[in-house]
Specification:
By secondary structure, the chain is of the alpha/beta class. It has helices spanning about 5-25, 30-50, 65-70, 75-80, 85-90, 90-125, 140-145, 200-220, 235-250, 260-275, 295-305, 335-350, 370-385, 405, 425-430, 435-455; strands spanning about 175-180, 190, 200, 220-225, 310-320, 330-335, 395-400, 410-420. It is built from 16 helices and eight strands. It is globular. Bound molecules: zinc ion.
């Protein structure tokens, strides 16, 4: 790292620590404990603060001259200098005071950093100020990923969007897409208005997904849908379906890496998740996907999926933002790092992570996330290319931790088409022809991705 690149990198790292780490910390119980400790320290040791300026290093005759340059000696100090008894009595407190002063100063500095960072991030998250390089997250996104708002230091925007020229049809022959229409059944997703809803996210996502299927099929792609009506389908059911489809594709292509016995073992485990159709740990619906990190069964499936060319996973959602300040398209993908960061947090905050039937495993590294990141940027550029009003005031492309992307090995993304909570976005969503434009954007993104893979 040369001098030129060191300073920007340093300031970026510093900003990340101040803004995002403090925002993370503010959301933990450790933060609460920290404040209790801070107040106790202040109350308990505040009498000693008075003695801090009186502190002598034991050489009483130097006392005044040493302090002269730093503080004007007060009457106590002068008295101490001439009264050995008084200073001896204070010795006990005095020997503690430099450490206490250091501790209290550190705590005070930390409090100030947390206050600045937390406030800055909060304002950014609400869309009131813009902190370039930090993600603003919608409430729906935070809720769905079951974690606190966190920063997104890992995103590298691909400048400028697609530069290649797409052939007119944007042909997708040979491409397979597993399409996931978010929510459904008892899970409506986000709603609007918040109190007495007229609109449910699950209805929009299904209609958009149907339109996307139409577009992709017309370009020659093969499309599978994880849900086709408004029945409840659990997240782990969706992913189990995805693994089974991938096993079928691998088998058809002659690249299934399992023995017949192993294949039927895995199929049976996946079918269980589909049959149970629940997302809780207690239900057993997570099946071979339960726990932090990646278990052996899942690892085998994921490694098979990393090798499957031209097979993609896309989840369609709408966004929502309580303060209604955010609008436009956002695309999410996962990386090992974004998942690990979230899981570390959940170990502290999510009680499901402390259940005896929830295995805590080593952190997993191995996902080829660059592919999903590239696809995500194409998706954003192409959707906004079709509907310029969907250019977002939040962060366009983000890494995060979503089960539907985390628990399989396909290149994929979660498309938050736009904000149901934003008046303008909603008006556009309700217009005839919007779904077709979104679908064309998604189709074009896949075609661009295919082109860059070939090129
Ligand atoms: Zn959603």
């Amino acid at each position: 790292m040369n001098r030129k690149s060191f300073y920007p990198a340093f300031s970026k790292a510093l900003r990340r620590v101040i803004v995002s780490e403090s925002a993370d910390f503010v959301n933990t119980s450790a933060f609460f404990a920290y404040h209790v400790a801070f107040v106790i320290c202040l109350l308990h040791f505040s009498p000693i603060l008075k003695t801090i300026n009186e502190r002598s290093d034991g050489f009483h005759h130097n006392h005044m001259s040493e302090n002269y340059y730093y503080t004007m000696p007060d009457t106590n100090q002068i008295n101490n200098t001439y009264n050995n008894d008084a200073s001896d009595n204070a010795d006990n407190k005095k020997t503690k005071s430099p450490y206490l002063r250091l501790l209290l100063t550190c705590m005070l500095i930390l409090t100030i950093i947390l206050a600045i960072g937390g406030t800055a991030y909060f304002l950014h998250d609400q869309g009131i100020v813009d902190l370039p390089g930090f993600s603003a997250k919608s409430s729906e996104a935070s809720r769905r990923s079951n974690k606190k708002t966190s920063s997104n230091g890992g995103v590298k925007a691909l400048a400028g969007g697609p530069e290649m020229t797409l052939p007119e049809t944007g042909d997708l022959t040979g491409t397979v897409v597993i399409l996931d229409a978010g929510h459904g059944g008892r899970d409506t997703g986000c709603v609007f208005p918040f109190n007495n809803p007229d609109y449910n996210e699950c209805d929009f996502t299904l209609r958009i997904a149907e339109q996307v299927k139409k577009d992709l099929t017309s370009r020659g792609a093969t499309v599978y849908m994880t849900r086709t009506d408004n029945d409840w389908v659990s997240l782990y059911n969706r992913i189990a379906q995805t693994h089974l489809i991938c096993m079928d594709i691998a088998k058809e292509r002659g690249v299934l890496p399992f023995s017949e016995e192993r294949e039927s073992e895995l199929r049976a485990l996946l079918q269980q998740s589909i049959d149970i159709n629940e997302d809780t740990v207690a239900s057993g619906g997570m099946g071979l996907m339960v726990g932090s990190g990646v278990g052996e069964d899942l690892k085998e499936l994921m490694e098979m999926e990393y090798e499957l060319e031209n097979v993609f996973f896309l989840s369609i959602h709408l966004n929502s933002n309580e303060s209604r300040t955010l609008h436009g398209t956002q695309i999410y993908y996962v990386t090992d790092e974004s998942i690990i960061k979230s899981e570390r947090n959940q170990m502290r905050t999510n009680s499901e992570f402390r259940r005896s039937d929830f295995p805590i495993r080593d952190e997993y590294y191995g996902r080829p996330s660059e592919r999903s990141e590239i696809l995500s940027q194409y998706l954003y550029d192409c959707i906004v290319g079709e509907i310029p009003e969907f250019e977002t005031n939040a962060h366009p492309v983000l890494d995060d931790n979503y089960a539907v992307l985390r628990e399989h090995g396909l290149t994929g993304a979660l498309v938050e088409v736009s904000f149901l909570s934003d008046d303008n976005d909603r008006e556009i969503l309700l217009q005839d022809g919007t779904n077709a434009k979104v679908a064309k954007g998604i189709g074009d993104a896949l075609a661009y991705y295919k082109l860059q893979e070939e090129g």
